[in-house]
Structure formats: C-alpha cells, structure tokens
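call fold target=Potassium transporter TrkA
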Amino acid sequence: MHRIAVIGTGDLARAVCYSLAAVATTSVEVVVVGRSAEKTGQLCYIASARAAAVGRTGVAFTPFVGDVEQPVADVDGALVCASSQSPWERLTAPSAWTALVGRAGFGITLPFQAELALRVGRALPERSWLVNGCFPDAVNPLLAALGVPVLCGVGNIALLAASAQAALGLPDQARLRMLAHHVHLHEPAERAEEVRAWCDDEPISAPGDLLIAQRRAERTELNQIGGFAAAVLLDAVLSGTPIETNLPGPLGLPGGYPVRVSGPAIELRLPAGVSRADAIAFNQRAAAADGVVVDGDRVVFGPALAEFLPEAAEGFDIGDLDGVTARLYALRDRLRGEPPAQQRGGVEMPV
C-alpha cells in the first residue's frame, strides 16, 4: 500500500481528501497532518466514509496531530496545503496588512507561503516526492533554489485549465496547453497580459473568454475544482498512469505550464514554436505583476513594499530569507493592528 501525507485541514486539504476518497484507483493510506485533533479527525472520518460509500476499501485516512517532520519521514510523497498566511484574511479580518497585500500583490506573502513547504521538503526521505499547494508559482522556484526538490504544485493554472477544458467540451487536457500564473485567476488589466492557450497546437484567440465563469465564481468555492484536480494528479502519480495536464511550478519553474506526468516524473509539453525560455519569460512577467519574482538565487518584491521594507523591494539573496521573513512578520503584526483605511495610494489587487 502506498502512503502519503496531506499537510493541513483547511478548504484545499478537505477538497483533496474528499475527492481522493472517490477517485483513487490504487491502495493508499493518507496521513492527514493538522494542528487540531477535532478538525483532523473530522476530515479523516468524512473522507473515510466517502471512500466506503463508493467501495474504495483500499483507501484509508489516518489523522496525525503534531509537527510535520515525524509523519513525513516514511511516506512516498507529501502534499502541502497549509501556510502561515491565509488567502482569505482580506475577507475575514481586513486590516492595513491585507490592504498592503492588495496593493503590492499576493507575492509579498511568499516567505509565509514557503515556510511549511520548506520544512516538509527537508524532512522527506530522498526517494519521496513533494507537491506544493501554497502559491506554487513562486514558492516552488524558491524551494528549488534552496535545494529542496519539488515535483509540481496544484491549483492556479490547474484550475484555469480545468475551466477552459470544461468551456471547450474536451474529455481531458491532452489537446489543451496553457501558460498561466497565479495572477491570472483574475482578469488582467490589459488583454496582452492574458493567459496563453492552445488547442491542438493552434493558439486560442480569446482564452479569457473561457475563464469568465471561473472569474465570476466565489473564490472560496474554487478549491472544490482545484482539490479535485489535485486528487486526480495524486492518483496518477501513485498508480503510474500517465496524464497530460497543466500544472504550476513543475520541477521548480515559476508559473504554470502544460506537462506530462508519468508516476513521480514530470516533463514539459510546450506547444510548437514556444521554447522553454519563452514560457519562463512569460511567467516571470506575470510574476512581476503578482508582486514577486524569484530568479535563481534572488527574490525581488514589487515597489509597493519599498515604503516598509526597502531592502526587500530592491531584491535579496535567498540566503537572507530568514531575516526578511522575520521583518515581514514584524510588519504584518504591526499592520494587522491598523485599519485598512490607513493604507495610502495604489490600486488594490484581489488575491
């Protein structure tokens, strides 16, 4: 029996586990790692009941409450679905901090999104794989730069591609290739900044039209799609069934790309006429619009952060990540105590 860990008990982790309970085609024990015994146990109960309801007797969900290092020490792979910065904070607890994130871009939360993924990746056995569900468009290249191998991410382009697939009426994504970034979850200000997509290697002239329903949907509901797509991916990795899909952060690259997955191996499947360098350049331009660019060993935040952390806005080496993270924690703590009206200037970007 395979054994994997799912880190977190929030919306995405629940969507993944509830979906995996129904779609798993191979025997697997899913160790769900959380901080609350009540939430972790409830998630495992519901997922187990769903698996039983569809006759998936080889799928088991086991709760674990505590630090992540112990449960991931003996697994085939891990999916990280938790971070120290919620994307929903602007809705649940608006403050000067969430206003800054809106102005500067979600990218300024990169250190918070990466903390737990780094811990998990460093604790995994060498033979195991890591899939990251927390801002993989930027976190995955950071992990790779820090020497932590990462297979790919989930969400973001996977959600966009599933939405486009549905709009096109395609049975799978073998004919659909997309380049897209987390920032493309929302309609860009300029048409030229829109996602790029191809069907049968032919460019789709208005790819944004395929994403209208997704962009109008309640953001809190979209994890139902991203979580289901993640479950399909995990099952393919475990079973060895090859799939052609579109994923964020494959092999530690920035942004999202069309890929071919075969077990715990992944490769790009770019459309004809698009080089790897072209695809990366497109995603790095999108990354700048999202507030952070990870380029090799260097991280650059956008100019909106300059007022608060000028050294970070100008760029820093990944070796300084711990210090920048500490300063961001202090900044966040301070701004959370101020109302959003005290933020000055700029245009707020949704996250």
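return ok
Residues 63 and 178 are 36 Å apart (CA to CA). The two ends are 38 Å apart (CA to CA).
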